[in-house]
Design brief:
There is one protein chain. With about 170 residues, the protein is mainly alpha-helical. It has one domain: dinb family like domain (Four Helix Bundle (Hemerythrin (Met), subunit A)). The protein contains 7 helices and 2 strands, in the order H-H-H-H-H-E-E-H-H. Strands 1-2 form a two-stranded antiparallel ribbon. Strand 1 and strand 2 form a beta hairpin. Helix 3 packs antiparallel against helix 6. The longest helix has 25 residues. The radius of gyration is 16 Å and the shape is globular. Keywords: Metal-binding. It comes from Cytobacillus oceanisediminis. One of its GO terms (molecular function) is metal ion binding.
């Protein structure tokens, strides 16, 4: 597979998640699990949600059934729930390797996949669009983390796409 924009966006997603995780590892341990009044009850809950959702979309891209996807997400979410930030980092790293392995097997990320959803019925997606969705979803929730850090008196870490480009 040639290098393309969808894969570059996923590279950004991995980079941004790593930035957030590295930042959190430098903060007091309580920050990661502390209850806050926000969209999620803790930063750890946000990161577990992001992890589980990334699994959902990878399984969808791979052609797994809705039932099998839900089962896989619940299994892996259960493994990651309660993990320390260091342990969650390992889960994230493993998942990104799965994404890259999937990408390497694809001849065309612009191809259409078809999936069935119990609520939405038959859905057609272009793989690259789903990759962009994964990245956008991650960006949204990394913003949640920044807001939650500020609520706890801590600073966030810049993860805008342009900072990724500065480092490339």
């Amino acid at each position: 597979m040639e290098n393309n924009r969808a894969k570059k966006m996923y590279d950004y997603h991995v980079w941004a998640n790593q930035k957030v995780i590295q930042h959190l590892k430098q903060l007091p341990d309580r920050i990661y699990n502390e209850t806050v009044n926000s969209v999620f009850s803790s930063i750890s809950d946000v990161l577990i949600h992001l992890f589980a959702t990334d699994i959902t979309w990878l399984e969808t891209m791979k052609g797994s059934s809705f039932h099998d996807t839900v089962k896989e997400v619940e299994r892996r979410k259960s493994e990651a729930s309660g993990a320390s930030i260091e342990e969650l980092e390992v889960f994230y790293d493993s998942l990104s390797k799965e994404f890259y392995s999937f990408f390497a097997e694809q001849k065309d990320l612009e191809r259409v996949i078809i999936t069935e959803h119990p609520q939405y019925g038959r859905c057609e997606f272009i793989l690259a669009d789903l990759i962009h969705h994964v990245v956008n979803h991650g960006t949204y929730h990394r913003g949640n983390v920044t807001a939650m850090l500020r609520q706890q008196g801590e600073r966030g870490i810049p993860t805008d796409y342009v900072y990724f480009l500065f480092e490339c």
